[in-house]
Amino acid sequence: MKGNNAAIHLTIYNDVLSSQIQNQVIEFWLQHGVLNQRAARERVSDVLIIARNTENKIIGIFTYALKYIPLLRNYMYLIRLSISPGNSSAFLVLKMGKMAYEVLKEKAKTEQKKPLGLFALIQNNKMIRKWNWAIWPRLPFIYIGSTNSGHHRRVLYFK
Questions:
Q1: Which of 98, 94, 70, 72 is closest to 83 using CA atoms?
Q2: Positive/negative CA dihedral, 105, 1, 9, 46
Q3: By CB neighbour count within 10 A (0-12 exposed, 13-18 middle, 19+ buried), where does 25 fall?
Q4: What is the pLDDT of residues 65-113, one digit of tens each?
Q5: What is the rounded radius of gyration, in angstroms, for the C-alpha atoms of the chain?
Q6: Residue 134 phi/psi, 5° resolution?
Q7: How far apart are alpha carbons 104 and 80 in whole angstroms?
């Protein structure tokens, strides 16, 4: 990324990924130690957005899954974002987050179990330290507490 945000290409995947893209996603997660082989194969069907650089290499993956969140006593889309080292930026997080919010807000209208919004568990310590507002300014996720491990729980409700 290195200051050239226009060089990032985001693609939304509403359908099943081709086997070629599935393999690229799994390779990305394994290469960066995000998931093990088994977990990667299970989660690959949850991919919503893939970010690629000018060399067409994956630099970010956004996934979602409809989950019952006991803390909220309701259904939410559990979201996860993995960005490769050296490519993380507020721009990319915000761009992917806003895009996912819009897509999932529409998808929620068709779900039998109506999700209230997005639920994120922030595990990146740098992000926890730097993005420590009660409500994030440009992507208004609300802080609703921390886990025993210190990870932040955040929600963004659909309007």
A1: 94
A2: negative
A3: buried
A4: 999 999 999 999 999 999 998 887 888 999 999 999 999 999 999 999 9
A5: 15
A6: -60, -40
A7: 13
- Would you tell me how many other CB atoms lie within 10 Å of the CB of residue 22? 16
Provide the CATH number for the domain around residue 99: 3.40.630.30
pLDDT at 48 over 90: yes
Rounded CA separation 81/49 (Å): 9
Distance (Å, whole) CA 90 – CA 109: 29
How far separated are the first and last CA of the chain, in Å rounded?
Answer: 32
51 secondary structure, DSSP code: E
Count: domains in the chain? 1
* Residue at 50: amino acid letter: I
Query: Which residues are 75's β-sheet partners?
Result: 68
Q: What is the reported pTM?
A: 0.90
CA separation, residue 32 to residues 28, 58, 61, 76, 87 (Å) = 6, 11, 12, 27, 12
CA distance 45 to 25: 10
Residue 134: domain span? 5-157
